Amino acid sequence: MNRLHRWARAPGLAGFILAVCGLAGQPAYADGSVSSLRMGYGAPNAYAFARFQNVIQQYNASGERFRIDSHCQSACTMFLSIRNVCVTPGATLLFHAGGSMQTGIVSPAYTQQMLSTYNDALRKYVTDNHFMDTFAFHAISGRDIVSRFGYPACR
For 66, what's the count of Cα atoms within 13 Å in the CB-facing half-sphere? Predict the structure, then answer.
């Protein structure tokens, strides 16, 4: 039985050592990000939409940096309202009307909620270009979000 206990503990110890070594090789980011939260593909329902709003409140309350660093569509674009947000040049943000893609019903209320999270320049651009009128996706690069619309670049 003693031998069995040693063999049972060995994988646990080995797993622990591998985990520690694996973490040692990872960059230490205190920042939150779209990629780390895996929230880049929007909100398929009201519950998921509320989750985006909760993340925004959490990061605004803590003051932690939040990185938009990857594919970011739909409700994900509301992360632009985080007070300590930054955008990487390689990010891609996709804009469209709020509502239910499953039913095909555009919601003026959800669309307005998303629009209210953008700065004036971006809000005017997406409105003037009718990005928020339909469910068709309209992409803006992270590079343009920074250079054209004045959001901070990630360093």
Answer: 24
